Amino acid sequence: MSQVTEYSEKVMDHFTNPRNVGEIENPSGVGTVGNAKCGDIMRMYIDVDENGIITEAKFKTFGCGAAVATSSMATELVKGKTIQEALEVTNRAVMEALGGLPPVKVHCSLLAEEAIHAALWDYAEKNNIKIEGLKPPVKDIDETEEFYEMGEEA
Amino acid sequence: MKEFIYLDNAATTRVDKEVYEAMHPYFEESYGNPASVYTFAGEINKEVDRARKTVADFIGATSEEIYFTGGGSESDNWALKGAALANRSKGNHIITSKIEHHAILHTCEFLEKNGYEITYVDVDENGVVKLDELEAAIKPETILISVMFANNEIGTIEPVKKIGEIAKKHGVLFHTDAVQAYGHVPVNVDEMNIDMLSASGHKLGGPKGIGIMYIRKNVKITPLIHGGAQEKNRRAGTHNTPGIIGFAKATELAERKMRERMAYETKLRDYLISRVENEIPYTKVNGHRTERLSNNANFSFRFIEGESLLLMLDRNGICASSGSACTSGSLDPSHVLLAIGLPHEIAHGSLRLTLSDENTEEEINFVVDKLKEIVERLRSMSPLYEDFVKSNKN
User: Fold this and answer.
1) If you ran DSSP here, which 8-state letter would residue A6 be given?
2) Least C-beta-crowded within 10 Å: which of A63, A66, B183, B229?
3) Contacts (Cβ under 8 Å, ≥6 apart) of B173
4) Are the Cβ atoms of B308 and A148 closer than 8 angstroms?
5) Are B105 and B335 in contact (CB under 8 A)?
6) Contact at 8 Å (CB) between B286 and B342?
7) Is B38 exposed, middle or buried (0-12, 13-18, 19+ CB in 10 A)?
8) How far is B9 from chain A (nearest CA, A)?
9) pTM (2 decimals)?
């Protein structure tokens, strides 16, 4: 956990007003990375047009302030980019765009990078294409489904 | 309304005005070292003794059995390391619980690395230590049982009296970390068969950096801090006079107001719990329903993560805490929430709100209203909630 005062203004801005939250219906690609056990899951949706440009990017994230902010920034950074350009959006790029992260939160930026790659991988699979330099995403989502009776909605 | 709403009284409390005023002369006028020979210091030493008596009376001990320390963590360290070393010839086995404060657990880990054996007893789903398991763990080498009086995260009050009986029956020392309980619930060391007890000043409107350790007469314990002859050669270091006076004053106030404060806080706490339970779906209340500290409420909100929740509450001027992946930068959520059986992802979404008698119903209403909005917002951003909703539709 990090204190509010350890986060940059940019991080707090992207946490409180996250850009591109939501889902895309029938997206060109969608990828989910992370692990509920560790407290972070990111899901990224992308739409890619016929010229290979990412026209839309959305996300949903379960996680800390940094996880939300890095997801938000990652979607901003890939929008309007070609697939090859999107591959160059590294965790370092996300971190720099956010004005840095507390050391214990660096893994969130890695997760954001993985989320981009996972969405691109899904896009490539759906379209039967090979993206140079892209590795398959690691699937380690692990949510204990029914732990207790949650009862009726209030 | 105030600038912010403080609901983190288990972390620390505001120093009571009366406490502050009682301490003040010991900075400016009565600054002498109580161990010095001259009259000026001797008078101060008498005040230290009076403070010691106030504390002793409050827990049913004698003055000779109260030692002033630098706080709860020091007292916990002393109790475990001191008793372990002094009783090494008797045995090397210590029994504790899985939900202790890190001041106990990390001290136990240190002792394990130094030739001691520790048994960590389980708790039930409410956080109550399993007494049968505890008793069954006792063996000839067992020298000490250390179980907290009340848990700092989920507020559960442990069956201390029964643990004391078990310890006594088997001739084993019993230490209790009463940092969250002292001044909040009645404590009597004789009735409860307590041999050692740790408490800290700043959890009950006293200052930080002062604590006590109760050590029953004839209990063998090695000093932790070596140096001067203070505290009957058992705890060296110049007396923290303002701290000691402040600790005693806070104790006196706690004794005077306890019944009234417990009643007020319990009512407010139960109101808070019932509003949250009724108005926020997919929520679990952690800890025992009735055997719990009057100021503690602890919830798990499914599909969301605790730090995000705290940051959002902070944006709304609400100070709270969470058992989500902890301060150490570790990825594991609270060991207490895991011990009561919560899966990791649900433990990540926990929130602790701890009240004081300064909180009002108006504040609680504001907090619950905000909490509802925030939980809903975070869920709308959560892929876990999205999956849950979709799987329920199909």
Assistant:
1) G
2) B229
3) B83, B87, B143, B144, B145, B167, B195, B196, B219
4) no
5) yes
6) yes
7) exposed
8) 18
9) 0.93
Distance CA A75, CA A57 (A): 5
Q: What is the DSSP letter of B176?
A: E
Identify which of B74, B47, B323 has the alpha carbon closest to the alpha carbon of residue B196.
Answer: B74
- The SS3 assignment for A61 reads strand
Q: Closest-CA residue in chain A for B372?
A: A154
Contact B239, B33 (CB under 8 A): yes
In the residue annotation, A38 being an active-site residue is answered as: yes
DSSP bridge partners of A59: A21, A44
Per-residue model confidence as pLDDT tens digits over B262-313: 999 999 999 999 999 999 999 999 999 999 999 999 999 999 999 999 999 9
Tokens of A90: 């590294």
Are A41 and B384 inside 8 Å of each other by CB? yes
Q: How far, in Å, CA of B287 to CA of B299, rounded?
A: 9
B124-137 pLDDT, tens per residue?
A: 999 999 999 999 99
pLDDT mean over B174-200: 98
Q: Provide φ and ψ at B382, rounded to 5°.
A: -95, 125
Q: Specify the DSSP class assigned to residue B81.
A: I
* DSSP string across B206-271: --TT-EEEEE-TT-----SS-SSSHHHHTS-S---HHHHHHHHHHHHHHHHHHHHHHHHHHHHHHH
Q: Which of residues 360-389 of B touch A (CB under 8 A)?
A: 380-387
8 Å CB contact of B381 and A143: no
Dihedral Cα B160, B161, B162, B167, nearest 10 deg = 80
